[in-house]
Amino acid sequence: MNSDVHKLLRLKRYEHPTPDYFERFLDEFHDRQRSELLRQPAWKLAWERLVDALPEFRVPRLAYAAVGAAAVVLSAVILVGQQDEGLPGTALALNDPRPMVNVLPPGRGDVRLPVSSRSEFPPHYVLEARPVSYESPYSF
Amino acid sequence: MSSILMADVAEELEINDVDLVARTQDGDPRAFDDLVRKYSPRLYGLVYNMTSNHEDTNDLLQDIFAKAYRSIRGFKGKSSFYTWLHTIATNMTINFLKKRSRTYKMSLDDVDNGIHNDPEFLELTSSPDARREVNLKELQVRLNEAMMKLSNEHRAVVTMFDIQGMPHAEIGKILGISEGTVRSRLFYAHRQLQNHLQEFLVP
């Protein structure tokens, strides 16, 4: 250690603010805290508190990125899963209480569909696109 | 004997800090006010000697205590509160200095009249070997200019060791470096300062 330089630097201890500075400092601190609380939205305060709490765990910065990426992937998986469950056909097939029968001839494979009774479907009729009576008569 | 007494005083201060921190964590803001009163002069010295600017120091010190208050629930007492608070202060100051414009202006506090009775100052001004008459204001400006020529990391070590009188081990804990690194940074910084302050040093 260079003792001459050390002695010179020690003189910097005599540089300090006026005595009333530290008395005012605490009041200013309270004022700033109050105005900060009023100015910031609640979500930002909550986020700052979370960020302030994180460094105490001494987790490497990359770990936060890994956890963030994992959270995004997990969210994506959950969302895709919910969308799949939301398809009406799938839900109908899974939850359909009716018995299933193979609609292909024996030995041709196995495609099962629920048995339907006629009463389950309302009667329907297929009309010709053009009524016969409206056809123009042939003339020669 | 005196070292034992100092250790006792330090231990008592530490116990007091533990109590104040616990009360703050329990939601008593007055306990944190006591911590601010206790540490603001010391932290002011740390930040001021790293920035050489009173206004920047004031703003940074407000931010440092605000951050400490927000984070104090996460303080588990693995280090002393003193070390924890100084780590926040040093990191925030270094981050601030990285962003500060290169064209900043120094804004220096007044030098206490007590300097005229300081044995080191008397030695500097009255020594027959002194190369020149020392003008106090000029010395202050030159000291600050020399400090600002150091890198932020070197200036932090010099501030804590030479100006604030912290032991190497404590500085190492605050900066997260080994005692050996603290010593080598000091050696390098002193060599640089010696070049910048040549005219004030006794040959």
Describe this protein's structure.
The complex is a heterodimer of chains A (140) and B (203). Chain A has 140 residues and is mainly alpha-helical. Helix content of chain A is 51%, strand content 4%. Chain A has 5 helices and 2 strands. Chain A has helices spanning 3-10, 21-39, 42-53, 61-85, 88-95, and strands at residues 100-102, 112-114. In chain A, strands 1-2 form a two-stranded antiparallel sheet. The longest helix of chain A has 25 residues, at 61-85. Chain A is elongated, with a radius of gyration of 40 Å. The model of chain A has no long low-confidence stretch (mean pLDDT 75). With 203 residues, chain B is an all-alpha fold. Chain B has helices spanning 2-25, 29-51, 54-71, 81-99, 119-126, 136-148, 152-163, 168-175, 179-196. The longest helix of chain B has 24 residues, at 2-25. The two termini of chain B are 37 Å apart. Chain A binds chain B through residues 1-2, 4-18, 22, 25-26, 28-29, 32-33, 36, 48-49, 52-53, 55-57, and chain B through 33, 36-37, 40-41, 44-45, 48-49, 54, 58, 61-62, 65-67, 69-71, 73-76, 108-112, 114-115, 118, 120-121, 123-124, 139-140, 143-144, 147, 158, 162-164, 186-187, 190-191, 193-194, 197, 200-202.
Question: What's the gist of this structure?
Answer:
By secondary structure, chain A is mainly α. Chain A is built from five helices and two strands, in the order αααααββ. In chain B, α3 packs across α4 (81-99) and α4 crosses α8.
